[in-house]
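User: Can you predict the 3D structure for this chain?
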Amino acid sequence: METMVKDLSVVEFRSLMSDAIRDAMEDLIEDMLALSSDEYLHSIEEARTDYKEGRVKCLEEIFDV
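Assistant: Here is the predicted structure, written as structure tokens:
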């Protein structure tokens, strides 16, 4: 049986909302920091070039499975 919002106490609802907002803000801040890094942006460009030119390996090759 699913828990509905109407079944939550105010404290439970507030806690769920607070956790969700905190997680979203942490993700946003992490993205902003990453995208403001020239080194990070360069690594993305390099990875895309490697992928387009076929310089990739399968997980099986990397982990020898």
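DSSP finds three helices and no strands in the chain. The radius of gyration is 21 Å.
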